[in-house]
Amino acid sequence: MSTWEKWKRRPQSVWARKALFQIHLWTGIGAGLYILLMSVTGSALVFRRELVRSLAREPRVAVGLGAPMSEEELKQVAKRAYPDYQVTRVSLRKNPDQAAEISLERHDKKLLRLFNPYTGADLGDSIRMGFRFVLWLADLHDNLLVAQTGRLINAGGGIFTALLALTGAVIWWPGSSTWRRSLGFRWKSNPKGFNWTLHSALGFWTFGFFSMWAITGIYLSIPTAFNAVVDFLEPLRTPSRSLRFGDQLLYWFAQAHFGRFAGVWVKIIWTVVGILPSALVITGLLMWWKRVLKPWLASRAIVPSGIKGPENAESENSVQAR
Questions:
Q1: Burial classification of residue 61, based on how many CB atoms lie within 10 Å of its CB (0-12 exposed, 13-18 middle, 19 or more buried)
Q2: Of 61, 89, 103, 226, whose CB neighbour count within 10 A is largest?
Q3: 137, 121 in Cβ contact below 8 A?
Q4: Is pLDDT of 23 > 90?
Q5: Is the full-model pTM beyond 0.90?
Q6: 195-196-202-203 Cα dihedral, nearest 10 degrees
Q7: Which distant-in-sequence residues (6+ apart) come within 8 Å of 135 by Cβ?
């Protein structure tokens, strides 16, 4: 039987598939935590713009019967509330139901507070806690909280994720007689193999999304490298209002990564499907535990009969000494 025939009918016996399986296994183990992090944070950030607009909304104040306080009066109110700070700016808003924003500083520490312009009540931080959390989450997803270094790590993570998707697509093929069964889950017919069937089916149905997120994630991490490739392939000649094909492609990369090219239903799909790579990581780790790590730990725990381990030998020596 030729190699092609083996691949069609019994791919498990092909050496190349076995090698790709090992690459897929260890790449998944190495990048599993990273993919889990990107999956969860990415799904949460699909609605980033909507969350920012909602959480950045300032509280409204009831319009008082009298005139609002002047800047100097509000400055004195802020000084009484924060005697250790210096007031650097008082910002009165145009709308009468908006709070006044006051900036304060003490050495290297800065505060940005909201005050009721009618009563002088301290309404809290100008930057809301929920808004800060969204910014922190975006920094975690985009930069891993370490600025440019995090972007380079993300680029490497995207490359390994693409490798994982490619090798997974190859080793998914079970053979011409059984490939249809690998498209769904089989809990009732094979409870013990459900984890494998779940991993296999999820990998098949999310392959397009998984690959897209990997490639677009690499672009968003190192956009200058992609721009350089576009400039090399399509050099700028004369000023033109039309975008180059490469520029349009990169624009759609950015839009596709977070599902920003259509309405809310696309974002909902991106949010739901974005969680599925987490399931792939978990099912993959469970298989590695059951097939590799657990048997290895069990073999290490077994002491062959007739061979004294160090603990048994020590006990035996103690008995003889007595």
A1: buried
A2: 61
A3: no
A4: yes
A5: no
A6: 140
A7: 52
